[in-house]
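Regression check, zinc ion case 422:
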Amino acid sequence: MKKILFILLLFISLKGYSQFDNYFENKTLRIDYFHSGNYEHEYYRPDELIEKDIWAGSKINLVDTFDYGKFRIMVYDTLSGKLIYSRAYSTLFAEWRTTAEGKGSCGNFSETMLIPFPKKVINVVFQSRDSLSKWQNIASQVIDTKNEFILKPKKSSNEIIPLHYSGDVTQKLDIAIIADGYTKKDIEKMKKDFENFKDYLLKSKPFDKNIDKINIWGDAAISAESGITNPVDTFVAKTILGTSFNTINSDRYLMTLENKTLHDQLSNVAYDQIIIMCNTKKYGGGGIYNFYCTAAAGNAQSEFLLQHEFGHAFAGLADEYYTSEVSVEDFYPLTIEPWEPNITTLVNFESKWKNMLDKNTPVPTPAVNENNKITGVYEGGGYISKGVYRPFIDCTMKSAHANLFCPVCKRAIQWMIDFYSK
Ligand SMILES: [Zn+2]
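Current build output:
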């Protein structure tokens, strides 16, 4: 029986590889585009197509199975009409357009998607969720890599430091940690901070049980000036990635708008996920699903910040807190089940962690001391105190506690590690 199972598994994985080899070369097509608009409208405009000489993603899991995120690209083989690759994600534009500013004026954001390099003509369809959370086609772009003008990568000269290596990049989750706000004089500190960031991840649960499925790379990008821009204190540092506090008018929100620079600086490292390690003592960070995350490296809470923000960026986890200075409005309409795996409006709880509840656990579950270790349905989450529920009384996605992902968040992280490491 075991032998049959083994042959079957071998057949399935060979079939996966042949699908990849049919349609793709073992390198990356970086698709840069502009995503613009406001709360009501959105537009896509193609920018550059750039070739990268390695593919870091899975060769088996080409189609996204999670259904998270605000946006999605669907890559079709034009000849057969077959879906050959997809990936869902969120962006800063999605957050900005829900702010007061985004409801009035028009914003223009550079975004990048990485797909395996197609051998044949493809049709890339850009989709967004509508107000009912259904996917709608917004734009499309036919790409023929044989005839299209494809730029060669602008190779950065950054030193790439292998911080943790467990094997072939296509069969592992590859995390690139890129430095921002470190000058040449800060290089020793940068290397120490890289080691700390690696440990914050690999020594925390559930990453600690998966170290053989993960590679971590340090990208030693050098900045002209030391520190991180903080507009509230009128401190400006000329840094390589332009990361700044006070993104969308939220003091602790640490993001960069320089998308193309970020991806150029990462041109000689293979990655599935990006962490920007910021040389600042000030508390702050940010994380957006399949986009990137940031964390302050010199703060007493850096360990928590990194785990929390990586939870957003990597596993699509929502904030489980509900008192917020985050300036996003109407983020979770109560008539729609949110896509994040760790909050629910109970509209479609079956799709969430219902199968992890003990049959005696009441729904909703009272947030009282004796339920401290019980997976339940606790009211308050996703910046909203009524009508949005979280799975545990406390969690790294709720309060500033490191290494405390709740069972539902741990399960979601595990799913994602397994997806990337096939
Ligand atoms: Zn949680």
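Comparison notes: Confidence is low (pLDDT under 50) at residues 6-12. The pocket of zinc ion is lined by residues 320, 342, 391-392, 395, 397, 405-406, 408-409 (CB under 6 Å). No diff flagged against the previous build.
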